[in-house]
Fold:
Amino acid sequence: MKSNRITLRSDLDIHYYEAGDESAPALVLLHGWPSSALLWREIIPSLAGRFRVLAPDLPGHGQSDKPRHLRYDLDCLRTFILDFLDALDLDKAHLVAHDLGGMAGLSLAVRNPECISKLVVMNTSPYPKWHWQLSMVIGLLKMPVLTPLFLNPFVFKQVLASGVYNTTLLTPERMALFRAFWTGNKESRNAFSKTIAVPPQNMVEPREALQRIDLPCLILWGKQDRYFSFGIARKLHRDIQGSKLVGIDNAGHFLQEEKPEQIASALLDFL
Structure:
């Protein structure tokens, strides 16, 4: 897995991981918040034998640029995917998208379906109405004044604990993979809250637009997600005609951390 950087036409400097043969079909993996492309680290090796795997850090995340002026809304993230593909001279790619990346992936499927070969959506929010607990938690997390509190190692662990079924997985090493990129400098700390500041209603496409998606689509979901319940997955499965739904037992929101072998197998079967 190689660590690379590329500058997009928007002048954003983007970090990404790459693995596999450059002549193989392109497969782009999009993570969510508050993670980075390292969320895919245990899955990439299994995919690299069949695909050219590209896992970028989203703008504002990981080792990518975190400009203060950027509004991390749906247009920004969708444009980022298009610019990333363009910078790599890719007309089309398979797209696997989780959480915040999933919102962007669904938007791309609605507005630029010609860029996607097959789509995989994982534990995300396709609809504007959130569970009240999620709305409350995100409301607190996106307050810049509280960022130092939430980046405290103990408190940050509690935030992540709500996203996994098996909390024993939250070792100090795994915690550091999530937390370190938010604490390195002032820009990183600012991005922690800014990257989720946009209201949920501005981060989704209309339901009727989702119902017009006409792509091979897999909905792959950790069934014990406390905030993005499996009921959301079933609803999205009904809305995207012809989609395939696979639920992963004993896995929460960060199913890549809990069930990497099952996730890799499901992706290879579908793709």
Observations:
- The first strand starts at residue 2 and ends at 7.
